[in-house]
Each structure stands twice: as structure tokens, then as C-alpha cells.
């Protein structure tokens, strides 16, 4: 199965909202290290990763003293990879937290400056001053147990595409089982194998091979998000595909559905009409266009009734008897004025007495 099929929306969980400041959590504080604490936001499942596991995470980071956010991977719609035990020095505290999480768990971590960006702060992130304690909201999407700690950068092109394809297939199975959150975790990990830095290096058949896995993962993510009523995120996933393939019918169709659900009817109609151009016999596209036309008709009728109520009913035309009466009055007034005019003229022309 190359892609899962979109289905009717249903209300399930949501990705965390975009916080401008760290979220306030009431759960118990767990001390993981002298300089690292954890509070669970959402429980995970399964085992925790071991040393040299390749972990795929989303996170937001803030400087605790200033409350300034310095990084947010959710905005980029792409998780990052971290090999436990081989992480960058400034991510030591973050790695300690991730090592104590389960698949799908989301947590709030507090990390002392000694296990973060240290004495000097961050040159790349000016919002991280010297000796800045850090706050992370982090989600462990999933991990691969690789005893040798083989990172993506050490894999061949074929290995990375193959690993991504396996994740995609696992995601499809979970989707069919209606395990949407878990399916999205698999798709996100598949996408993480093919980040921008990797895709930029590919051309010819290797790029085609990578896109044949990457684009379906984005489309499948969109299918999950539509079912979860998370339409803005679904639009983002479809748009990523359309930047590579502007005529992709499934991307146009799913973006159109998402836009229609958000009330963006003109933009939705544009997507559906373009999709119909490349798939003129597709009944689903025709149905969506028909629904939009019916929606427009209903809106027009409502507006018509509204305007009628604002401006009120048109005045009733006067009866023919009233018109006739008015005409007789005008004629009578004209005859009187004519009579008095003749009288005055006669007086002016008569001879004066001595």
C-alpha cells in the first residue's frame, strides 16, 4: 500500500498548541539528575530508550530567566534525531530527559545551565544568554534500538530511504487500525530520515526514490490530521508536497478538504478545480465541488433574506383610483390658474376712466 486513504474526521487528541511561554504543569516533579527535572504532560507507552538508541523528538526550548523561546521544531513540522550518548554537548540535559521517557510521552524538562549552553550561552540562539537555565517541552515520538549507535548521517542513501519506507509501512498498518497518533509517530520518524539537508544532496533517481517515500508520508500525515480535525496542520503537510509536485492530486484534494472545513471556500474551490483538471473522472472531487456549490447557494439565500430584513419591504404601489384623483386635482388647479390669468390680462387691457 503506497498511501492510506483519507476518511471522515473524528475528534481525538491534538498536538500541543504553540506556546509563547512554557506551559504550567501540575504533575509531580521527578528528579532525573542534580540539574534535570521532569514533569509529565502526556503519558507514553512501552519501554524507554537505551544508550545509543536513535530517538526522534519534537521540542520547544526557552531560557528560564527571560522566558524567551529560542527553538521550536513543531513549527518546522519535522522532528530531530538524537542518538543517546552521542548528543551535542549543549543537549546533554535534554538527552537525560529523553532517556527517561517512553514512546509518545510529552514532558516538561528543566535543565541547569551546566548541562545546556554553559558559561557563554548560545551564539546561534541569542535568546540564550550566558549561564541560562533552560526549560524544554519535549515529545519522544519514537526511537530505534541500534546498539552500534548508527546515526542517519552514517547511513547510505539506500539505508536511509529503506528505513523511512519501513516506518511508512508501519504507519499504514496503524492507520488502518485507527491508531492515528501512533501512525503519525511512524510517519514523522520516516520524514526525519529525509530532512532538507539530506534531500538537498540528492538528484536523479535517488531523489525520485526519496520523494516516492517522503511525499506519501506527508500525505498520510494529512489524512490522519483531517480525521483528527486538525485542518491547519493538514494544510501544512499538503503544501510541503505541493512545493515538490504542484499537480499532486491527493495533496490538492486533501488541502481542499481542509480549507473547506475551515470555511476557506474560495481557496478550497481552487484546489478542487485544479485537482479535477488532472483527475476529471474522480467522483470524490466532483462531490466536494458539488458540496461547495450547495454551500454557496445556501449562503446566498441567507444573505438575500438578511438584506431584505435590513432594508424592509418595498412600498406598495398606489391604486389606480388614487392616481386618477390626483390627476383631476392637477387639471382643476391648472384651469383655475388659467382663469385668473385671463382675468388679470383683461383688466390690464381695459381703458382707464378720466
Automatic annotation (TrEMBL):
UniProt-listed InterPro entries: AIP/AIPL1/TTC9, PPIase_dom_sf, PPIase_FKBP_dom, TPR-like_helical_dom_sf, TPR_2, TPR_rpt
EC number, as in UniProt: 5.2.1.8
Domain PPIase FKBP-type intervals: 52-144
List the catalysed reactions.
[protein]-peptidylproline (omega=180) = [protein]-peptidylproline (omega=0)
What keywords sit in the KW lines?
Isomerase, Membrane, Repeat, Rotamase, TPR repeat, Transmembrane, Transmembrane helix
GO terms of molecular function: peptidyl-prolyl cis-trans isomerase activity
Say if the entry is tagged with keyword Magnesium: no
Q: What PROSITE patterns does the record tag this protein with?
A: FKBP_PPIASE, TPR
Where do transmembrane segments lie in this chain? 327-346
| Entry superkingdom | Eukaryota
TPR repeat boundaries on the chain: 249-282
Has keyword 4Fe-4S? Answer: no
What is this protein called in UniProt? peptidylprolyl isomerase
Lineage runs:
Eukaryota, Viridiplantae, Streptophyta, Embryophyta, Tracheophyta
Amino acid at each position: 500500500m503506497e498511501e492510506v486513504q483519507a476518511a471522515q474526521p473524528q475528534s481525538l487528541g491534538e498536538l500541543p498548541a504553540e506556546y509563547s511561554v512554557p506551559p504550567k504543569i501540575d504533575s509531580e516533579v521527578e528528579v532525573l539528575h542534580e540539574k534535570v527535572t521532569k514533569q509529565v504532560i502526556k503519558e507514553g507507552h512501552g519501554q524507554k530508550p537505551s544508550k545509543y538508541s536513535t530517538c526522534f523528538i519534537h521540542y520547544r526550548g526557552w531560557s528560564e530567566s527571560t522566558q524567551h523561546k529560542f527553538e521550536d521544531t513543531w513549527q518546522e513540522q519535522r522532528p530531530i534525531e538524537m542518538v543517546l550518548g552521542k548528543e551535542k554537548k549543549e543537549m546533554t540535559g535534554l538527552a537525560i530527559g529523553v532517556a527517561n521517557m517512553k514512546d509518545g510521552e510529552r514532558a516538561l524538562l528543566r535543565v541547569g545551565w551546566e548541562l545546556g549552553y554553559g558559561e557563554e550561552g548560545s551564539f546561534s540562539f541569542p535568546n540564550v544568554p550566558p549561564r541560562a537555565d533552560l526549560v524544554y517541552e519535549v515529545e519522544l515520538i519514537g526511537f530505534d534500538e541500534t546498539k552500534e549507535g548508527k546515526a542517519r548521517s552514517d547511513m547510505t542513501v539506500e539505508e536511509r530511504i529503506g528505513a523511512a519506507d519501513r516506518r511508512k509501512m508501519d504507519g499504514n498498518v496503524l492507520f488502518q487500525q485507527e491508531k492515528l497518533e501512533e501512525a503519525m509517530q511512524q510517519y514523522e520518524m520516516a520524514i526525519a530520515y529525509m530532512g532538507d539537508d539530506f534531500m538537498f544532496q540528492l538528484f536523479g533517481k535517488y531523489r525520485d526514490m526519496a520523494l516516492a517515500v517522503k511525499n506519501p508520508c506527508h500525505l498520510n500525515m494529512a489524512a490522519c490530521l483531517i480525521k483528527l480535525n486538525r485542518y491547519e496542520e493538514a494544510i501544512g503537510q499538503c503544501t510541503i508536497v505541493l512545493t515538490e509536485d504542484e499537480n499532486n492530486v491527493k495533496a490538492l484534494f486533501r488541502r481542499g478538504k481542509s480549507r473547506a472545513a475551515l470555511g476557506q471556500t474560495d481557496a478550497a474551490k481552487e484546489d478542487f478545480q485544479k485537482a479535477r483538471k488532472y483527475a476529471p473522472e474522480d467522483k470524490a472531487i466532483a462531490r466536494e465541488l458539488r458540496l461547495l456549490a450547495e454551500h454557496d447557494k445556501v449562503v446566498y439565500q441567507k444573505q438575500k433574506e438578511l438584506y431584505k430584513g435590513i432594508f424592509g419591504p418595498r412600498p406598495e404601489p398606489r391604486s389606480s383610483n388614487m392616481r386618477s384623483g390626483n390627476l383631476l386635482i392637477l387639471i382643476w388647479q391648472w384651469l383655475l390658474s388659467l382663469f385668473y390669468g385671463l382675468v388679470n390680462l383683461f383688466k390690464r387691457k381695459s381703458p382707464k376712466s378720466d
